[in-house]
Amino acid sequence: MKFSHQLVVSSLAVLVLSACSGSPQERRQAKDDFDYLDANPLDTWVMPEGAEPQYYPNYEIPNGDFKGAIGREVDIRPPQQILELIPGARTELVDGEVTMWLIREGEVDKIWQTAQDMTQERGIGIRESSDNHIETEWVSWNSEDEEYLIEARYAIDRFKANNRYGFKISLIEWREDGKLQEVSATNLERYNVFMTNLVTSKYDQVLREEALAKAQELVKSIPISMGTDRSGLPVIIARAQYNVFWENAVDVLPAIGFQLEERNRSQGLIKAKYYAPDDKFWESIGHKPISLDEKNTYSFSLGDLGNRTSISISDSSGKPVTEEVLQTIAPVIAAVIEQQNQ
Description:
alpha+beta, six-stranded antiparallel sheet, 6 helices
């Protein structure tokens, strides 16, 4: 039994020309007329008697039997770009087929598993499956710049060649409005890239989820202490990488009374207005209230120290708070981090 699955393509996979009007066919065609198709053939150049021809190869048109679309058949849509979301992968696009090359077998195995997970999550039927080959059922693509429902079947393969590990996606059958057709070179490349981007996007999502889980695990035990910066000024030191601590700082600071107003990750800057929590909060973490003026805005500057992060605080005038104030804030940050991860 054959199964046909409807796949609604995301914005990563379909270029929707929202600014254009007219039919789908018009969105794929040039706006100018096609009178040039009716132009008379060029006459053979006749050299005057006694003249010697001079040829310049810069603009020489090569001889050959060239085939391709002309006039209204020319598809003016910009080519789709493969999303480079897999670290270390080198991508080749040859004759409309996409191949990704990796150095380690474990990496291509992970991409292979990602492709299997993606097809399952999106309800794409599998016609054939082996350890190194997958052949899908019909995948339907909905696009505003196509007149008919577009359907395609794909082969997904992994292999080894020249001491490298390859992963390839190939469009093997094509239907328009339910009828089998020969796929054009433009659509072959376009819809191979679409399918490839579904895999790379899924792979990127998995990496992000793994990184978040790792960060959440690491943050459960972030030692907080006092230290000094390169100028000898007192700072709070969090023994966690900058990107790990930043993700948690935007959660921890509101929990201890700071209402975030601005934040700039690349500059390590957070501005927040302080509103003192009630007594119940301080009792729950077992610490005394911190010594800051309520409703004043404070700036937190986070510094990347490799495997550590420095935290300095200044008031609305740009003056650093005292070491005594930092000493009251440091244990509160540590207590809230521990509390949030229990």
